[in-house]
Design a protein that fits this description.
Shape: elongated
Largest sheet: 5 strands, antiparallel
Radius of gyration: 26 Å
CATH class of the largest domain: Alpha Beta
Number of domains: 3
Length: 358
Amino acid sequence: MDTSRAEERQFGIAALDQRSREIFSRLVDTYLQTGEPVGSRTISRVLPSTLSPASVRNVMTDLEEAGLIYSPHTSAGRLPTELGLRFYVDALLEIDPLASEERAKIDAHVAGSNRARSVEQILTETTNMLSGLSHCAGVVVAPKINMKLRHIEFVTLGPGRALVILVNDDGSVENRAIDVPVGLPPSALTRASNYLTARCQGKTLPEVQKFINAELATLKRELSELTAKVVEAGIATWSGDNAGDKTLIVRGQSKLIEDLTTMEDLERIRRLFDVLETKKDLVDLLGAAEKGEGVRIFIGSENKLFSLSGSSLIIAPYHDSKEKIVGVLGVIGPTRINYARIIPMVDYTARVVGRLLT
């Protein structure tokens, strides 16, 4: 869209009278409920005042010229554009307080359990809960959680390759493939495993890395040169983690395909799944919420990450005991998301998580 055209549309939106805003709001409400193009006759039935379909059509023409709605095909129905959805969310959306039943569900899932849970387990269960309540995908970005290690092991994958397996105190397992000298005997991997496990049990990974760096001379005296290289490579591979210092949790992607009706919807979801696989880009986007307070909403192509999938992202930050923002949580779904219900849900969940973690 050229600049002059965009300015004309912004002026048109600002000049909308109360009747036009009412009709537009009813159109978007109906679309969010049904997902179908909305016609003038449908709107005239739900308006509180008596207004003929012909009068509604005249208003819809003005709304289309303002860039708020469009016709997807030759039918008389109209759909909101992304600009229209943004205008609706920013200027017309009425957000009611979260229902007491949903507050109770969130409290029960996030904070109501008496069993001992790690921070990562709490956040994973919160992500699942958000997905279930919203019927979208739940997402959480949290600080990288440095668990204490129970066991480290090296396993041969093939010539020149080995797998490093970390077993954390809570039983969770991480693994990475590394390069090792070609022809390395299996005994060297066994010695490397025994060396690290004996010295690093009960330490976090950063503590292990610091210990190995400080003890390089001792390491090379006690182990053969090849085994020492394996130990160094196995520990160093975690320091270059492309996820940085953040952990990304995504749950409930299957919710996004429950209401698909067309091949176009299927292609949109396929593109969204591709986005969810690009972990670093998604972490960077979610990190944007850490720069401000309150709920953030991204609609469709407002962010290049969702420009092809036509998706909306509703996220909010959560805080630690010092009121510092430490992570972000929310949901990803189609642009036809229930904004009025999900915005307060995400906001309340972020506050409950913040209280629990502090």
